[in-house]
Amino acid sequence: MKNIYLGFKFAFSYFTILPVKFSQDDDLSKDGVTKSLLFFFPFVGLILGFITIVSYGMIENLEWLGLILSAVLYMILYGFLHTEAILDVADAIYAKHGGKDPYKIIKEPTVGAMGILFGIAFMILKIALIAYILKFNLLYEFVVIAIISRFALLLNIKIFDFHKSSTFIQIMKKNISLNFLILIFIIYCLIGFFLINTDIITIIISVILTSFIVVKYLKNKLGFANGDILGTSLEISELVGLFVLVYCL
What we know:
The protein is mainly α. The protein contains 11 helices and no strands. The longest helix has 29 residues, at 31-59.
């Protein structure tokens, strides 16, 4: 039970900026803790999504400003952890075009011009889509997309091989079995059906398929897969899921 609780806290401390405290005696290296973290990772999306829509409800009277603030808050809540990956991946792609080592570039702490431009373009698109969805009151659909995009990341960790230096991903991969993935999928799909009932299949397929295609493409393009590629796949799959939702209005 303690491992489950620690994994729950670990998921929020690692993937969000929400305040989570650990004691010096807490051992986060146990497999049980890692499995719990993996199980609760999609739940992180659910909580961040709910915080976003609750915040919008509180400032809805600000109209368009409230929409933008709530959309930005969603990304702030996960500390732009996955958004930052887009900048690094864009730099790595253009570095490889120039004959440089893409892995060396992707691990550099600095960001190049192309990374900044792609990052800005992505943020504009995502803020616009989230704001549009909030405006039309598709609140629970937004939450479901936040859940499924994180499940898709777990699926990609199971499917693909990653760079040897991606130690934490290797640890997570070791703790993801097929039965465990199926269990997570069933539980969170049931939550999704409870929240929106309709069109969830279209959302699930679009998000998971996009996430897989992005990782597959970037792995082939750069010659490796790492956490930045996973983060990019999460962001792009969410973007596509949001667009599919808007398109199907």
